[in-house]
Amino acid sequence: MSDSPEDTTDAAPVAAQDLPEGASRRLQELEQGLFTSDLSVNEFLLIKEVGFHPLGLVMGSSIYHTGIQTRRWGQSQELTKLTEAMYNARELAMTRMEEEAAELGADGVVGVRLDVNYYEWGKDAAEFIAVGTAVKAESGQSYRNKLGKPFTSDLSGQDFWTIMQTGHVPQGLVMGTCVYHIAHRGIGQTLGSAGQNVELPNFTQALYEARELAMTRMQDEANGLGASGIVGVRLEEKSHQWGSHTIEFLSLGTAVVKTSDDVTLPKPTTIISLDN
Amino acid sequence: MDATPGPVTGPDPDPDDLGAPNPDGSDLPEAAERRFSEGAFTSGLSVSDFAACLQMGLEPVGYVQGYCVMQWRWYGAGVQYAGWGPSTTRSGGYSEVWQCPHGFVSAEHRSWGQNYEQTWIEQAWTNGFSASLERMLDEAESAGAHGVVGVMDSTQSLSDMGVVEFGVRGTAVRVQDGPPPHDGRPWSTYLAGQRLAKLVEAGYAPVSIAATVASVRVWANCITQYLTEGGAYGWATQGATQEITQTANAHMAVRRLARQQVRDQLGSDSLHGAAMSTTEHELGEGDAELQCTLRGNRVRRCAPFAPLPVPRPTVRLL
């Protein structure tokens, strides 16, 4: 697919043969100068202001079959198989999006959205999609991350402008996940504490641990990128289609690296709006 | 669970008595300690809040969190009312009895009504909330933070289990070139970014988040019941608009109780950005359970008031 000799971007596209044929045709068209983006006008102007140019809308997707794992009715435990499935599927979608961006010779992808879709035709399958706008620095300086890949981030155009003013550069959208089964309470336990409002330390611990695991995994990814921090961390909890006792804890954020100590953000001006 | 309480670090040791979630004696789950021993900082702030915090010299250290799952039963409901006379409320706190003016009783006629404060629910809420808060502050303290900004709290009922999970989360920060808090315990605030900057500029320092719940149960007497039903109750209303005194009193009481509870937490400090919300849970004709939540930021004056610069008027060209 991408064996064209003029393809001399500094880092060779990672396993670009993964991409469907439609993608390479679309990307070839984009390379001729036309760009597509889902940026708003304001976002576009801010990205231009900070010295970047949008190259094209890039995406990646993966339909993943999640395996079956037995859950013990009365036990709180991590469901490692489901954790792996949820993690790998997102990772695959992201990697394919990165490949598309690399094809375009991009420095990074902004405004990445990560969605999960369930379809009627595949009960145990889920489609994971990553979509974002690939951007490239106009100065020609490379903003790719430590791994030589385009950075990814869920930052909006406004956020991207602001973070650059603080002397930080995005390195990648990092995530960690943990699928946890919360024990059912036996009748004995329920009766034992009926009529009292008391803490249930086992439950506290199980949920607490699951969230910490998700966050640790996210941080591991950031460390792998040599990041100095993660901004905009979100912790999401979803039961997807597993019933109420199985919960996925997903933590997500943009890893950034500090490139300068200067915060060039001007002192904010106080304003009063005369609109109603 | 290990019954030995963890090291008492905070000014208020009570929440520690609930039992630490980690059996090895530390207050934090194992994974939390692993997380903080690693390099990168994490921040739950939006990028604009993050930038504003950097600008005011607050350096994010890590996203911190604390949780507490409580067994939760509304067991005040359904057992206390007896048609023949007011029950004792046992709970202490606010209570008020409403008698029937009609001078006759029957099994269907509610000759007694009462409002009372459900102190056990307030207590359970306070325990769950403050245990989560203390655990979050433990995480912040172990990360070497001076304070926690952008705090968010939540209560979540865990499906069919009759349990409620309390959660408190925020971004721990260090004040650049600043001294650690003098009692070692990080401060906390719901504010972040520019909202926090404005507060500090006005001469206030954050102390902690403050939140409380007041709960009042209404058992309607005959008049309240008929008025709430909206039915014809000839000899009381004569068709005129009339206040339902029992319900109105309960609404006033629940708000007064919430304000009083927060005032008791404040000492000589003030409450900034208080937000009050009341929910009514209807349980029958005139019977209800009222819950009033009050949250805000406890702040302390640390510098004379310095007004912000005169704002520049703007008009958006849409």
Annotation keywords:
heterodimer, A: 276 residues, alpha+beta, Translation Initiation Factor IF3, four-stranded antiparallel β-sheet, 30% helix, disordered N terminus, B: 318 residues, five-stranded antiparallel β-sheet, four-stranded mixed β-sheet, 11 strands, 31% strand
Structural commentary:
Chain A contains 6 helices and 9 strands, in the order H-H-E-E-H-E-E-E-H-E-H-H-E-E-E. Chain A has 276 residues and is of the alpha+beta class. The termini of chain A are far apart. Chain A has a 4-stranded mixed sheet with strand order 1-4-3-5. In chain A, 30% of the residues lie in helices and 31% in strands. Chain A has one domain: Translation Initiation Factor IF3 (2-Layer Sandwich). Chain B is α+β, with helices and mostly antiparallel strands and 318 residues long. Among the domains of chain B are: 42-71 and 121-198, Hypothetical protein apc22750. Chain B (Translation Initiation Factor IF3, 2-Layer Sandwich), CATH 3.30.110; 95-117 and 212-301, no CATH class. A 5-stranded antiparallel sheet of chain B has the order 3-4-8-10-9. Chain B has a 4-stranded mixed sheet with strand order 2-6-5-7. In chain B, a hairpin with a 5-residue loop joins strand 5 (147-157) and strand 6. In chain B, helix 2 (47-55) packs parallel to helix 4 (193-201). Chains A and B meet through helix 4, helix 6, strand 7 and strand 9 of A and helix 1, strand 1, helix 2, strand 2 and helix 3 of B. Strand 7 of chain A pairs parallel with strand 1 (41-42) of chain B, so a sheet runs across the interface.
